[in-house]
Design a protein that fits this description.
By secondary structure, the protein is mainly α. It has one domain. It is 65% helix and 0% strand. It has twelve helices and no strands.
């Protein structure tokens, strides 16, 4: 089957396409939006979050990305140069990063509220400077923070994970692709131990973090990247996907349950939730990826849902957060509670999906086609 490219990762046209993995990425992206909407009402208390483990969707993305990178590119070296690999990654990822930053800048002053006091006093020049730096995905220093959260990308918070995604791609291309399976397995084991240590010693009992250039946040970001990304790569090398019926439904259901399950251990044993996080990332997420890679979508209705979710997954993830900021401002201005905010929250979810789809069709696909034509010069696809 001729491939469209999966979100975050570009496939080779000559290889069969893991359709279900695209759909799973879309399921996770929708859960991320819902998680961020509900986060508005937690008052910083993670115990109050309804979709309690939605933050681990990022770690699932990393497993997926490592798996598909290995599948798409491991056997291409020799026919493909480093420069060609990096061009492909930039073409696939970067156009939507720019759009995410622009949306963040355009909506910025509409986010002024008690959650972000002082936004109205941010100079336009500083806003534009942060936007242009954001176009490069280079993190801004804490001194250039715009809203008091210390984000490395204040206009589009989720871009932090794309920053680490780029690092994963660079490490793969320069070094890790050359690792034997034994050496890669040892590397994955060491990074898995580091992940468990981080999770169970976390003061809040989770692996949340990675979005700031503050040293502890950087440690969290690198720890969250290294195990899942390269475990996914190892999985692509050693796993032989089988033939599992209804694989999309089973894998999507399992993913939803893992991300929605209530906090484990309560406030007295927060390490238990950290252990839950680590074990899900280490064992459950690779299993879900294997499960998804082992099936095909044959029913027409399910195929359309799967394709739609796959198509919007990356645009939705990278463009939705400015609308979350605006939703928080609406909640603040209207003193709305969770129940009273549900219609608006649903509207924000639908708007985010529609914006993502419009960006995909009107911008992302045409721009990537144009960049491919200009930059790749008929090199290996």
């Amino acid at each position: 089957m001729k491939s469209t490219s999966t979100q975050f990762v570009g496939f080779s046209d000559s290889k069969s396409h893991y359709q279900i993995l695209d759909g799973l990425r879309g399921v996770a992206a929708v859960i991320v939006v819902i998680f961020h909407l509900l986060e508005t009402f937690t008052d910083g208390d993670n115990q109050k979050q309804i979709i309690n483990h939605g933050y681990m969707a990022v770690d699932f993305f990393f497993v997926l990305s490592g798996f598909v990178i290995g599948y798409a590119y491991d056997d291409r070296w020799g026919k493909m140069t480093l420069g060609e690999f990096f061009k492909r990654r930039l073409i696939r990822l970067h156009p939507m990063i720019i759009v995410g930053m622009i949306i963040g800048a355009v909506t910025f002053y509409f986010q002024d509220c008690s959650f972000f006091p002082g936004i109205g006093q941010v100079p336009v020049g500083k806003l534009l400077l942060v936007m242009f730096i954001g176009f490069t995905l280079v993190p801004v220093p804490l001194s250039m923070d715009l809203r008091g959260w210390g984000e490395m990308h204040p206009l589009d918070g989720p871009a932090w994970s794309l920053f680490f995604e780029y690092i994963g791609n660079i490490l793969y291309a320069l070094f890790v692709r050359k690792f034997s399976n034994k050496l890669l397995g040892l590397f994955v084991m060491v990074t898995g131990i580091a992940l468990i240590h981080l999770a169970v010693t976390s003061p809040h009992g989770d692996i949340i973090g990675g979005w700031s250039v503050e040293p502890m946040q950087l440690r969290i970001g690198f720890t969250r990247l290294l195990y899942p990304f390269f475990a996914g790569l190892l999985l692509s090398r050693i796993a032989k996907p089988g033939k599992i019926k209804h694989a999309f439904l089973w894998s999507a259901l399992l993913l939803i349950i893992i991300l929605a399950i209530p906090r484990v251990g309560g406030t007295d044993h927060v390490w238990m939730n950290g252990l839950y996080d680590a074990l899900c990332i280490i064992f459950a997420f690779p299993f879900i990826v294997y499960l998804g890679a082992s099936g095909q979508v044959k029913e027409n209705f399910i195929f359309k849902i799967n394709k739609f979710l796959g198509d919007i997954s990356y645009p939705l993830y990278i463009t939705h957060y400015p609308f979350i900021y605006m939703f928080m401002a609406w909640v603040s201005h209207n003193h709305a509670d969770l129940k009273g905010s549900m219609p608006m929250a649903f509207a924000v979810l639908i708007i985010s999906i529609l914006v993502a789809y419009a960006c995909l069709k009107l911008y992302d696909i045409p721009v990537r086609k144009w960049l491919t034509k200009k930059m790749m010069n008929n090199t290996v696809r």
